[in-house]
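Running co-folding for protoporphyrin IX containing FE.
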Amino acid sequence: MKGVIFNLLERVVTDEFGADIWDDLIDEAGVSGAYSSLGNYADEDIEALVAAAAAKTGQTRAQVLHWFGVHAMPLLRELYPSLFDPHATSQDFVLSVNEMIHPEVRKLYPDAVCPFFHVRRNGDNAVSLQYESQRDMIDLAHGFLDGAAVVYGDKVAVEKPGGASDRLDASWTR
Ligand code: HEM
């Protein structure tokens, strides 16, 4: 996983709980804590940090990943405005993930391995996103969708049908 994701997790944890808690998580996870944005680090490290955060806050892994995604989105908006500015709504933004967002990410971070979403439209304001990844982080994607709605000031309802680990159904209301 790219260092930029670890950097974002550090900012989200520090903003909400303070720098001492981030240091605790580093210790409890048994990871180095030194991540440069362009570097690649073991997925086990992010998993260990998420597990440490879950243990500390009494939440599940899924809840921590979702929370991280929601709070990371406004930071991504600050860091990469050019990925957000062309879109008027979070629906447009989300629908650009395969063709625009992650391809741009791969230019910025050449060996990034991003997930792919098979998109099926269910009418004008609803889509099913089938998650394809070498990882198991659909709950992060769920958080990104909810966080994007906050950034754009619109409303989305996101569900994992039947608790699926590979599909999100999203519908937007205006
Ligand atoms: C709707 C918008 C987005 C969704 C649903 C999404 C989803 C995800 C998910 C779930 C991952 C975790 C890795 C995996 O599951 O395989 C990921 C990785 C990543 N995403 Fe996105 N993302 C979105 C937007 C963005 C934006 C705006 C950026 C801005 C730079 C970004 C940059 C990255 C990077 C750097 C990685 C790490 C790849 C790696 O470590 O190799 N994503 N994305």
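Result summary
The longest strand covers residues 126-132.
Residues 1-2, 4-5, 76, 80, 83, 94, 97, 101-102, 105, 109, 112-115, 133, 135, 137, 140-141, 144-145, 148 surround protoporphyrin IX containing FE (CB under 6 Å).
Job closed.
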